[in-house]
Specification:
about 110 residues, 1 helix
């Protein structure tokens, strides 16, 4: 399966890509330093996953990112559940529909 291999300072992490997985390599400024993470979101399984992480980057740290065939994905170092966005949107639509039904009944009775 096609995927990505991220090598950070000689440590290689490989993740196979499925159609529901969004992967990211993030380098962000925190205080005076920088940190790095290789993570992703699998919307099919409603999971947030992190495969690699460094709290503070140093001068000379090295990244190599390759797109390649991956036989087996590396195990994530952290997995968390996420709320599917469509479920929340559907719940809001249902609440709005119910609100409009109740509003209509109150108007029919002359209460609003």
């Amino acid at each position: 399966m096609k995927g990505f291999e991220v090598t950070f300072n000689g440590k290689t992490t490989a993740v196979a890509k499925n159609k529901h997985l969004i992967m990211s390599v993030i380098i962000e400024k925190v205080g005076a330093g920088l940190r790095y993470s290789f993570s992703g979101t699998d919307w099919d399984k409603c999971l947030s996953q992190t495969w690699d992480y460094a709290e503070e980057l140093k001068l000379g740290d090295e990244f190599i990112i390759r797109k390649k065939e991956i036989d087996k994905s590396s195990e994530p170092i952290h997995v968390g559940s996420i709320e599917p966005p469509l479920a929340k949107e559907k719940a809001l639509r249902m609440q709005l529909k119910r609100y409009r039904e109740l509003e209509s009944k109150l108007k029919e009775k002359g209460l609003i």
